[in-house]
Specification:
Elements lengths: L1 H25 L11 E7 L2 E8 L10 E7 L11 H6 L2 H7 L1 H6 L3 E5 L15 H12 L4 E11 L1 H12 L6 E5 L20 E5 L4 H12 L5 E4 L7 H6 L4 H6 L4
Parallel strand pairs: 3-4, 3-5, 5-6, 6-7, 7-8
Antiparallel strand pairs: 1-2, 2-4
Length: 255
Amino acid sequence: MKKKLFVIGAIVLAVALVAGGILFAMRPRNIDVAARMTNEMVHTEDGALPFHMYVPRGDAPGLGWPVVIFLHGGGHGAGHFAPAQLNRDFPVLQLLFDEQNSVDHTAIVLLPRCPQGYRWADGEPNVSGRLFAMLDQVRAHAAVDDARIYLIGNSLGGFGTVSLLAHHPDVFAAGVANAAGWSRYDDPALLPNLVQTPLWLFQSDDVRWSRDLAHGIEQLGGTVRYTEFSRSRRGTLQRALAEPELLPWLFAHSR
């Protein structure tokens, strides 16, 4: 009996160690992302938009670099994020710049900052026009693969992601929205546009937002990935970023 318990214990320990190793491998490392990104500014008739930009070194692929745009949740402001904030508050940047991920999924990375009092795309006033001006400015300095422009959004940025996909189904290849859903500020008539663009939703709190959106897309004949986490002290975004299929799924799509 003792021997059987010992064997069972050893198996459990081995599984835990393997699982722990996998989780550790998926966790973004402590990378100085601020040192890799430049502070940029785009100016439009509507106003300015500060953003941080990373462009991979070396020659771009024949079709250009894919682009990942991260739309943050909180953190409105008139200027750029401080280096400490970039390194501390944006695990998605740590994930994208992880040594293995940056090899397998090399891309231009853009982190705009939403001005106080504005939304990303849903509702008024919003900065959607400035976001497209930002893309135009990036195209003037780097080779962009227009068939592989991706959005990742958290909370307010998640709603912005869904809104941008709905308003511009011919622009983005895929989107990831965390802690978000269909915005009450957007026209429901735009919902069918989401059938055309792959979307992965993550949620743990206020689940009806994402559940309703996923159900609505499915009712229209579309396919959406929906991952719902149980409530935990660990943030939904961190758990979403730990999904091993996230980046391969995102980068597999093109228009």
